[in-house]
Write a structure and sequence with these properties.
Helix content: 25-40%
CATH architecture of the largest domain: Sandwich
Strand content: 25-35%
Number of strands: 11
CATH class of the largest domain: Mainly Beta
Distance between the termini: 58 Å
Order of helices and strands: EEEHEHEEEEEEEHH
Radius of gyration: 24 Å
Largest sheet: 4 strands, antiparallel
Structural class: alpha+beta
Bound molecules: zinc ion
Shape: elongated
Length: 221
């Protein structure tokens, strides 16, 4: 989850002719999103909901607040980076507690290694990655991999390698994430399941091919 809203204050103005409603709202909710735009859309949606209540309490007998003008007065969309590290032990315990951490790779570097314990689900934040056993497939920005983490006590089933320099990967702890951001956890879950089905379909095709090869051999023999 790379961006979050910091100290956001939004101004909302009613566009209805001669309406005097013009108010400011501080957004205190913890809003996060994959892009700055996502954060902005969500923040403006909350500002609109807050202003609708206030506006209609005063003006509802004449009109309701529809399609108001909303703009950011102050605040920023802050990039959430990796936690600063002070020695291995503290870095490790920080990772244990958090729902996500980020890491960057150069092209060809191994992101997930076959046989490693699978504890997190991965999402490509920037760049690309590919599974070693299927080099033609590319995980691009927003794609997920690492489904084995969804099955308790599983190990990584194949190497996944960075496809370009500066590839950035988010490692999500789905259990922690389901507490802190259930919506994002659900999205990741379905994205990872899609990837799993794609892998299964690939396996079925290769089984089909093997079956046909065997049948051909039998006929010839
Ligand atoms: Zn109005």
């Amino acid at each position: 989850m790379p961006y979050r809203l910091k100290d956001g204050i939004y101004a909302v103005r009613c566009r209805y002719p001669r309406c005097t409603f013009h108010s400011q709202f501080e957004i205190k909710q913890n809003i996060m999103g994959m892009t700055e735009k996502d954060v902005e859309i969500e923040a403006k949606r909350i500002a609109r909901d807050m202003s609708l209540i206030k506006h209609d309490a005063i003006h509802a007998t004449r009109h309701t607040l529809r399609n108001p003008e909303i703009r950011k007065v102050s605040g920023s969309y802050e990039l959430i980076g990796p936690t600063p590290r002070h020695g291995e032990d503290s870095a490790y315990s920080a990772q244990e507690r958090e729902d996500v951490y980020y890491k960057e790779y150069q092209r060809g570097e191994v992101i997930l290694r076959k046989g490693d314990d699978a504890t997190s689900v991965c999402e490509v934040v920037r760049g690309s990655a590919y599974p070693e056993r299927n080099r033609s497939h590319r995980y691009r920005q927003g794609d997920c991999f690492g489904a084995a983490a969804l099955l308790a006590r599983r190990q990584r089933t194949c190497d996944v390698v960075a496809g370009s320099d500066g590839t950035k990967v988010a490692f999500y702890n789905l259990i922690e994430l389901s507490k802190s951001n259930p919506k994002k956890a659900r999205e990741l879950f379905s994205a990872v399941m899609e990837d799993t089905f794609r892998v299964i379909q690939g396996l079925e095709k290769s089984i089909d091919r093997t079956k046909k090869d065997i049948e051909r051999e039998v006929v010839r023999g």
